[in-house]
Design a protein that fits this description.
heterodimer, A: 383 residues, alpha/beta, Aspartate Aminotransferase, domain 1, Aspartate Aminotransferase, domain 2, 2 domains, 3-stranded antiparallel sheet, B: 159 residues, alpha+beta, Alpha-Beta Plaits, 4-stranded antiparallel sheet, two-stranded antiparallel ribbon, 5 helices, transcription regulation (chain B), Tscrpt_reg_AsnC-like (chain B), WH_DNA-bd_sf (chain B), WH-like_DNA-bd_sf (chain B)
């Protein structure tokens, strides 16, 4: 009954694990890919106020102009890149939709799209659903989970259309330095490709300020910048993201968006405007707290002598558990024996095998208790 | 802003070790810094925010607006200090506007507070007017919400 395309894609590895966890109420979870903070009150309050004033309609397919202008200003302030709010920004239902739109807008059947892994679970399936061919580019802990330009070069064929990249990265917490970005940008230009850059964790960096791909010389026109409000402002449930690109791509994307979503919910868009206007302080507070938890988690994992790469962004640590067992077995046993949920690394691509994703978007008490239990679990495995 | 202060302001019971892990210092350095803060009086004291009503204790509070004619050369300080010395007085602020001092008074019951104000507070030299507002209910104190806290409704595992 269902199409071959849909049959071809696997269910999300996270979903599979979720089925295992569900129903167990004594589980403490470091498996959550979203902030543990509730959306700051000013933002929620402004949504309530917009409802009171009767904001309940559709908006322009592009989204509220006020929000696009606010985003345009914010991007300009951060990166020095100007996106025309009337033609180059599209408000979407979360970055997930923005990504899907980006892929559907540019993909012809058999087009190859290089996906840097480990990565977010939807990157490959969306390409398959659009009739394209996802080409995996695995990265390793030794290379800081960042690809080299040679590795990209090796995978480019005459069918290559685009490269999908996301730094700061979910699940590894890796960031990419500017030099490496410039090398990749050179390849993208050389082969006339499109770079899809999911920067939803862009605000969550702990050592160096995030640099946006589109701010590199000549890259604005070749980049589809994806970002949103979910992570930095703790607004996952509001479903607000955006796609910023050249007019031609945005024109294409808005066609799909208008026939599938029409527009993102107006209440959420109103809240997103408030997030930009008054959310900065709350955001910075959350980021400082994530950083404390990050250091805490890294310290504890190091003490357990797990092989770990120091995460510099997002809110994940991605230790290697290779010496103990495979990702799934490790996660399932940790869940069964110590009631701690983490996500098996192979849910994010084959090269994630041998790792688990630990989210430190959890209260300090939760983190400490979970770390104690993981430590005890490792001891029991050693015996 | 020192992160140690930020962490302790929110929770005074965080251990040296935990603070050290969070800000990438060793335990000894954290202890030294906190001791220094105590010595300098930057950290005044480690106290606890208690919901007395929740603990089943009857306590009554009043905010008292106080008007004062200030003393030449000393301003409001001398009188404010005098008021602060009473153990019943929990907080004293000098304000702009119609009144000069805002004083938070604690007592076992209304009568006790009323007596304290008429007998001790209002009779201080240069205090020429007081207005007493009894507190009916506390919603938030020292930045802590005293009613049921909201919680996140996340799923246990998500991408």
């Amino acid at each position: 009954m269902i199409s071959r395309n849909v049959e071809k894609i696997p269910p999300s590895g996270i979903r599979k694990f979720f089925e295992l966890v569900i129903g167990a109420d004594d589980v403490i979870s470091l498996g959550v890919g979203e902030p543990d903070f509730v959306t700051p009150w000013e933002i929620r309050e402004s949504a309530i106020y917009s409802l009171e004033r009767g904001y309940t309609s559709y908006t322009s397919n592009y989204g509220l102009l006020g929000l696009r202008e606010a985003i345009s200003d914010q991007v300009y302030e951060k990166d020095g890149t100007f996106y025309d709010p009337e033609r180059e920004i599209l408000i979407t239902c979360g970055v997930s939709e923005a990504y899907d739109l980006a892929i559907r807008t540019i993909t012809d059947p058999k087009d190859e799209i290089i996906v840097v892994e480990p990565c977010y679970v939807s990157y490959q399936p969306c390409i398959t659903l659009s009739g394209g061919e996802p080409i995996s580019l695995p990265t390793s802990m030794e290379d800081g989970f960042v690809p080299t330009s040679e590795e990209i070069d090796q995978r480019i064929t005459d069918k290559t259309k685009a490269i999908v990249i996301s730094y700061p990265n979910n699940p590894t917490g890796a960031t990419m330095n500017k030099k490496r970005m410039e090398e990749i940008a050179d390849i993208v230009s050389e082969y006339d490709l499109i770079l899809i850059s999911d920067e939803v964790y862009g605000d969550l960096t702990y050592n160096e300020k995030h640099v946006s791909f589109s701010s590199l010389n000549g890259m604005k026109d070749r980049t589809i910048l994806l970002n949103g409000f979910s992570k930095a402002y703790a607004m996952t449930g509001w479903r607000i993201g955006y796609l910023a690109a050249n007019e031609e791509i945005v024109d294409g994307a808005v066609k799909i968006h208008q026939y599938s979503m029409i527009c993102a919910p107006i209440i959420s868009q109103m809240a997103a405007i408030e997030a930009i206007v008054s959310g900065e302080k709350g955001k910075m507070e959350m980021i400082r707290e994530y950083n404390r938890r990050r250091r805490m988690v890294v310290k504890r994992l190091n003490e357990m002598e797990l092989d770990i790469f120091e995460p510099k962004g997002a809110f994940y640590a991605f230790p290697s558990i290779k010496e103990y067992s495979g990702s799934e077995e490790f996660s399932e046993r940790l869940l069964r024996e110590k009631r701690v949920a983490v996500v098996p690394g192979n849910a994010f691509g084959e090269c994630g095998e041998g790792f688990v994703r630990i989210s430190y978007a959890a209260s300090r008490e939760t983190i400490i208790e979970a770390m104690d239990r993981i430590g005890a679990f490792l001891e029991s495995l050693k015996r | 802003m020192d992160e140690i202060l930020e962490i302790l302001e929110d929770n005074a019971r965080v251990s040296y070790r935990e603070i050290a892990d969070m800000i990438d210092l060793d335990e000894e350095e954290v202890k030294k810094k906190i001791d220094e803060y105590l010595e300098r009086g930057v950290i005044k004291k480690f106290k606890t925010v208690i919901d007395w009503e929740g603990a089943g204790e009857e306590k009554v509070y009043a905010v008292v607006d106080v008007k004062i004619s200030p003393e030449r050369g000393k301003g409001y300080d001398l009188i404010a200090k005098k008021i602060s010395n009473f153990p019943q007085v929990k907080e004293v602020y000098l304000l702009s506007g119609e009144y000069d001092l805002s004083v938070l008074v604690e007592g076992e019951n209304m009568k006790e507070i009323a007596f304290f104000i008429s007998d001790k507070l209002a009779t201080i030299d240069r205090v020429y007017h007081t207005t007493t507002h009894f507190i009916l209910k506390k919603y938030k104190e020292h930045g802590e919400i005293l009613f049921e806290k909201e919680r996140n409704h996340r799923q246990v595992v998500s991408p």
